[in-house]
Amino acid sequence: MPTVKNFDRKVISLLQEKIQLIQSEEGAVYLVGPIKLPVNLFGETVEFNWYCWLNCKEVTEDFERIIAKLSDINLAEFQQSSVLVYGDFPHTEQALIRFHSICHTGDIFGSKRCDCGYQLKQSMKHIVEHGSGALFYLANHEGRGIGLFSKALAYILQENGYDTVDANLQLGFVDDSRDYSDAIKVLKALRSKPVTLLTNNPKKLDALLEAGLDVDDRVPLWGDVSEYNEKYLKTKIVRAGHLNEGEGCCDNN
Ligand SMILES: [Zn+2]
C-alpha cells in the first residue's frame, strides 16, 4: 500500500509550476524544469537550463498524485534521462541538438575504449559556441541499448577478437536497440522549429527522421582517436555505416 502523504501546499505549488505533462502512446512523459545548472566546461562556468523526465502509465494533470508515488517506486534503481538546454532554445532560428547515449565507462571514467566522453564535452562546447541548442543524455542507451552488465560481457568478447557489432550479436542482442521516441517528444515540447543534429551516425539520423524529428542539417563530431579505440572506431565505419569524413573516426553516438 502506498503511504498516505500530506504535502505542504507551498511545496506542491512550487513543483507543479515546473512540471509539464506530455501525452504518449503508452501513457505520459512528465517533464520537470527548467532548473538552472552552472556547468564547468573546459574551465569556464556556463549556465544551462536542465530538464529531467519520467515515464508513467498514469496520465494526469494532478501532479501531486505523481509526486506522491515517487518515494514508493525506488527510482534510484532505474536511470532517468535528462536534457541540458542552452540559449533562447524555443525561439532561435537554428539550434544544435545532440542525442547522447549514456556511456558509463566513457563519460564518467574517461575510458579510451570509445570516444563518448570526448564527444559529450565537445558537443556541449559546440552548443554553447553556436548560441542555442540542447544535449539529450539518454540513460537507457548504454552499450547501444544492451545495458552496462551486458556491455562488460561484450568487452570481454572484444578482448578476445570479436568486434563491437559481433559481440552484441553473440550475446543475443540486436546490434542497436536504441529508442528515441521519448526524447523527441521532449524536444517537441521545448522547441517547434527544425534542428541541426550533431552526429557521425547516419543510422541515428534516419532513426530520428523516422521518429518524426524535424532535422534541417547534420554536423559531424570527430576526434580523440587513440591506439585504444582505433579498431572499435574502424568497426563502426565498416560495419555500422558511420561516415568517416574527418581526420578521425566515430563511435556509436
Ligand atoms: Zn562509449
Automatic annotation (TrEMBL):
Its EC number is 3.5.4.25. Coiled coil: none annotated. Residues 79-220 form the GTP cyclohydrolase II domain. InterPro entries: GTP_cyclohydro_II, RibA, RibA-like_sf. Its cofactor is Zn(2+). It catalyses: GTP + 4 H2O = 2,5-diamino-6-hydroxy-4-(5-phosphoribosylamino)-pyrimidine + formate + 2 phosphate + 3 H(+). It is an enzyme of class 3 (hydrolase). Keywords: GTP-binding, Hydrolase, Metal-binding, Nucleotide-binding, Riboflavin biosynthesis, Zinc. SUPFAM superfamilies: RibA-like. It holds the Pfam family GTP_cyclohydro2. Pathway: Cofactor biosynthesis; riboflavin biosynthesis; 5-amino-6-(D-ribitylamino)uracil from GTP: step 1/4. PANTHER family: 3,4-DIHYDROXY-2-BUTANONE 4-PHOSPHATE SYNTHASE (PTHR21327:SF18), GTP CYCLOHYDROLASE II-RELATED (PTHR21327). This is GTP cyclohydrolase II. It comes from Paenibacillus oenotherae.
